[in-house]
Design a protein that fits this description.
Elements (H helix, E strand, L loop, with lengths): L4 H15 L4 E2 L10 E2 L1 H10 L4 E3 L10 E3 L3 H7 L4 E3 L8 E3 L3 H9 L9 H23 L1
Antiparallel strand pairs: 1-2, 3-4, 5-6
């Protein structure tokens, strides 16, 4: 090593030591995180930062969404892939909610026609409304 490089190496070493003490903003600062830490502590923070994204806990049931860590509980509450138990007594299958009807149709030969669908419910409600108006009209005369 030449003598000219020695002072340069000392300066580089000194600069590296100084940079280790400079606070750096979290990589999620654009999402709203205001934390600034020295590099050695920042990496640990970023792994747990509430502004960071994580996979939905229901990935094994089919959900592929990434959610901001602080909103996971809100997502899980309404996640269409949250696990549910099959309602058939003899079946112990646990399945993503989105796939329950398919499971019932394939494994238990249950058809969705037996269930009240939204269109039928709307027709029933409309009939009840018309009947109620008719009865009120007759009673008020």
């Amino acid at each position: 090593m030449t003598l000219a490089l020695i002072p340069l190496l000392h300066r580089l070493y000194f600069a590296e030591r100084l940079l280790e003490k400079v606070p750096v903003p979290c990589k999620y600062n654009e999402e709203g995180c205001e934390v600034e830490l020295v590099w050695s502590r920042l990496q640990g923070h970023e792994k747990e930062c509430t502004y960071g994204e994580v996979e939905c806990p229901n990935t094994e049931w089919g959900c592929q969404e990434n959610i901001v860590r602080r909103k996971v509980s809100d997502h899980v509450e309404g996640c269409q892939f949250k696990p549910v138990d099959c309602p058939v007594a003899e079946c112990s299958t646990r399945i993503g909610q989105k796939f329950l009807m398919r499971h019932l149709a394939k494994k238990h030969r249950m058809k969705q026609e037996g269930l009240l669908d939204l269109a039928s419910l709307n027709q029933i409600l409309l009939f009840l409304l018309v009947a109620s108006v008719a009865i009120n009209t007759i009673l008020l005369m």
